[in-house]
Amino acid sequence: MSTNHLNRDALIIGICQYDNLPMSAQLDTLAKQAEQLAQLLETQGGFKITRLPCAADLTLDLNKRVTLPQLEQAIEKLLYPPAESPTQTALLFFAGHGLVKETKLGKEGFLATSEADSRSVYGFSLKTLRDLLHNSPIKQQIVFLESCHSGEFFTHFQADEKRDYCFVTSARAHEAALAEGLLTQALLNILGDSSKGYILSEQLLEQLRDQSSITKGWQRFEWKSQGKPIVLTNQAFSQTPIENAKPYKGLHYFDNKPEDALFFKGREKLIAELLTKVQEKSFLAILGASGNGKSSVVRAGVLYQLQQTERWQIVNPFTPTANPLTALTNGLGTTDVLTLVTSANARVILTIDQFEEVFSLCQDGQARETFFNILLDAVEQATGKLCLIVVMRADFLDKCSNYPRLARYFQDHQHIVTRPTEDEIQQIIEAPAKQAGLSVEPRLVAEMITDFKDSIGGLPLLEFALTTLWEKGKADRLLRYADYQALGGIQGILEKKATEIYETTLTPAEQVVAKRIFLELTDLGEGKPDTRRLVPQTELLSFATRTASPSRTGSPEPSVEQVIAKLAKEHLIVTDQTAVTVVNIAHDALIEHWSVLRKWLDQSREDLKLQRQINEGAKAWKAGKKALLVGVDLALAEEYLGTHLERVALSEMGVRFVKVSVAWRKREAQEREQPRRDRERLQRRNLLVLQVSLVVALLLGALAGWQWQKTKEQLQEVQVQLEKAYKNEIAAALAGWQWQKPKEQLQKVQVQLEEAHKNEIAAMVAQHESDKYKIQQQMEIAHRNEITAKRELENVQMVQNIFDNAIYKMVSEYNVIIGKSNLEDTMIETILSVIQTQLTINPKYKNAWFIKGFFLAEQGKLEEAIIAYHKQSEITPNGPNIWNKLGNTLYKQGNLDEALYAYRKQLEISSKHKWAWNGLGNVLSDQSKLEEAVEAYRKQLEINPKHEEAQNSLKHIFILPVECSK
Hints:
Layout: E1 8-14, H1 25-44, E2 48-52, H2 68-79, E3 89-95, E4 98-103, E5 106-111, E6 124-125, H3 126-135, E7 140-146, E8 164-169, H4 182-191, E9 198-200, H5 201-214, E10 222-226, E11 231-234, H6 258-261, H7 268-280, E12 283-288, H8 294-306, E13 312-318, H9 324-332, H10 337-343, E14 347-352, H11 357-360, H12 365-381, E15 386-393, H13 404-412, E16 414-417, H14 422-435, E17 439-440, H15 442-453, H16 458-473, E18 478-479, H17 481-487, H18 489-505, H19 508-520, E19 522-523, E20 531-532, E21 535-536, H20 537-541, H21 550-553, H22 560-569, E22 573-577, E23 581-585, H23 588-593, H24 595-622, H25 631-643, H26 652-705, H27 712-735, H28 743-817, H29 825-841, H30 848-858, H31 862-875, H32 882-893, H33 896-909, H34 914-926, H35 930-943, H36 948-965
Parallel strand pairs: 1-2, 1-3, 3-7, 7-8, 12-15, 12-16, 13-14, 14-15, 17-18
Antiparallel strand pairs: 4-5, 5-6, 8-10, 9-11, 19-20, 21-23, 22-23
């Protein structure tokens, strides 16, 4: 039965008909074996087979010719498929004659086509085949050549590290191949071995190597391989694949659906235990650590099996969310629990998953208690027709103690879901793969079982790893150990995959949105592990304008829906459509094991707490359940509002909540100030009245005092004039005061005063903002200076490292060359130039002066070398060889006393420095201090008895007195 895959193509060529080359029954036999190989690759290799030549029954035709154009076209079609139908794996098999053409450039090999004559027509060039393979877009390439001189394929062969390949020839370049087809027979035996579930290219080559070593005669196989082993055959290909099969669920739970239950394996014993309790009890609390598979066991195990019978009415499981009463209503529809149970024709199963949300998300204590009472009333009044199943993380069990009635049910009716055993883990890995028509490498199973034992929250990590391996291996129906290793194991796969999705799938602007989405979807544990937080999508959308603005990024802000869709497609978050669309992180394991998210949470934890307080307060204020912010709370919120876009953004309602609270505080302050202002205005008015009255009294008094001096007429005229002046003055004075004005004028003046007050405040604010901006500019300049300084320091360090490496590379080259001949002066000058550059950067750089002295001494510049060595001795006075080199240079210069000091200094540092003893002996000998010289040379020989220079020096000293006596 054929189970071909469009991404695995094979071209099987078997040529028996030749015009000018020998034909024999053995060629027919070889072609028949090629047909057997084609059938094997089709049924057990998952390859779509193309045969050349092809008979009417789609088998190899032994009576047809194959021309060069036909062969060229078939090979090019195999290696260069259409872009809309990409091929992952291509296999080429050729059985027929092979020829070699002698040219001035050497030999060239050919796959002989039917018209070949070995004189002028040869067939398809192996060089051309190499070029076609090298330029092909196909990532996995397999070539089997069964022909004479087929090893010419590897002449001038160039490895290609960008792809996986396995190339095998039946003979070496200089060999003819037996017509029996030794390679084809070996392929049939190895690939057709039914005792092995699958054969990889590396297994094939191991067995070919063993067979080639014992094959009789001259013929030997040749091969080359590169990259990841390629699946050649796999028993899984013989199975009919399940359409759209997804054997593993990643971070998502297995649900009570046929397509999920089909692949939910390994927990049969646990499911049976739970089924027994469900049938006996009206309440069952299923508890366990996060990652132990509680939801999957209940949904794909217990509920799926119960809903296969008519004895049960299954209510689709739901979670409490932040509003458990609303969630209950949505889960049941238009009815309540008791009405649903009493009207049902079968026993009702009501399942509440992730029950811990009623504690972690719900902030309304009264709603929480009402929710509990509704459920427990139904359990007690349903007279056995209801079984309430609650699934909860065990670390929230202590929360139940605050509700005695609920706590008694949890205490008396609970079942703990433990981690799967090793046998169960093996079933969880292997059984779904087998069900989906895949094989699993045994080594992979063993490694994953071991890793699972060391993991926390292991099942979601295991499922995510298996999902990733399945995506990589589904094309060739094999889950590989090598892929598992490359991805980082059970702990590393989730970390690596999540980071890869975040960094490569999302643009930088989308990454900003994604970070805020993940932070919003995480509930802070407060002494417990952080958990997932179910959030309505509409709430997340309120943050759409709260990310980086277009002015910062230079591009429009990405859509929150767009980022949610991308993350959901990659299974990092999940969305669910109930009454409204809600969004959640796929599993708590992502919070626990993704270091990027952990870092975000650690950096933003305090900001998140304050942001949540403000946003939750805003919701309560909008619902009429909470007053505006005041006092310290308002001060904190107002300060946070100014920087929230750079920290953790507030919702639009949260921003409004803070702004309204600030405005209300200002209004209250103004109202408290108004009575004082009214009193001041009244005081000013009374003072004015008093002043006017005094003016009138003074004028009248003065007039009465000198009326007797004037005539009556004069007095009357003066009085008229005074009264006129008085009236004008009084009228002018009084016109300016608002106490005589109507109410409208007073209000107008008050508005003008308030406007002036606002302008004064605005000026103060502007001045403050200006000062703030100047300070910020200064801080930014200081920050840039700091960055520049750090970069300069890094550049200096980098330059130092470069020159350091250059120096030691040159010294290394010198040490190699010195044994053969003297180093060229140009090379020494180059070395000294590099060293001088290094010392210009850092005059006290370790070892630089020492190396400079060494090469100056080589040039015979002894005085400069001595200066360099002295510089080095100042930096590292206890250096391992500095004083010895200085002593050697001083000795060459003839400065024996200073050389003697240098050698002794070296021996103070290391009394077993053999060259220092030798140099000391030389100096003492030249100073005619023969006894001391002998002692020095003997010290040298104690360290190295075979030191020829010391031996010769001793002989010379003992002979010297004899020569003198002569």
